[in-house]
Amino acid sequence: MTFHKIKQLFYALYLTNSFGFKLKQTQDPKEKKKLRLGYSLAQLNALNIDVKVENSEKLPKDGQYLLVSNHRTIIDPPLIEVVLKDTEIFGLWISKKELYNSFFFGLFVRNAGCILLDREKDQMSGFFADIKKGVKEGNSIFIFPEGTRNKTVEVLTPFKEGSRIIALKNRLPMLPIYIKSNAAQVLNDALDDSHERREITIVVGDLIEYKEKVDLETIYRERFSLN
What we know:
Shape: globular
Number of helices: 9
Structural class: alpha/beta
Number of strands: 7
Number of domains: 1
Strand content: 15-25%
CATH architecture: 3-Layer(aba) Sandwich
Radius of gyration: 17 Å
CATH topology: Glycerol-3-phosphate (1)-acyltransferase
Low-confidence stretches: none
Mean pLDDT: 94
Largest sheet: 7 strands, mixed
Strand order of the largest sheet: 1-7-6-2-5-3-4
C-alpha cells in the first residue's frame, strides 16, 4: 500500500468518526441531511472526485421514495447524498450489521439515519417494522437492491426481492439512480493519486410506481438501457 493511499485512508477514518460524533448530537432529519452532505463533499473533495448528474430534471425536490441504486464502491452513499443535495429528500439507509459494528464506519452508520439489516436473523419482522416506522415519520428509504457491492464484470448482479416488498408495504414510489461510471476504478485511481481531477457520472431515472407488476430489476435495466 502506497503512502498516499495510507494517508487517504487515515483522513477518511478521521472524517467518518468526526462526522459520526456530530450526527450523534442531533435527531433532526434536516440537520442529519446537512451533516451527511458535508461529510460526503469532504470525502469526495479529498479524493478530487466530482459528481456529474444526468437527467437532473427528473429528480424530485421533495416527497418520500424508495431510492434504489446499483452498488460498486464504499463511496456510493456519499455520491448519492451529493446527487440529492438540492432536494428536501432525506432517507434512512438500509445498512448491513457488519457496518454497524465496523471500527471504520460504526459510529457514523449508527447515527447517520440508518436501518439495520441483520441477515443472520430468522425473522425479518423487526426490520420491516423499523422501515414502516421510519416512513411514518416522513423519511424516504435508500437501498442497494443488489444487497452488496457488485465486484463482478457484470453491469448488475441480481436484485433481492426485499426492495419490492418495502415499496409495496409502504406504498413508496421508487426513485431509480444509476451510477454510470466505473466508480470502483475511479476510487482506486484516486486513492493511488488524488492530484488528478476525476469525475463520476450518475443518472436519474423516471419514477417507478410501487404497484408496477414487472420485477424491479427488469424495470431498472429498461430505465437505464442496461443489457
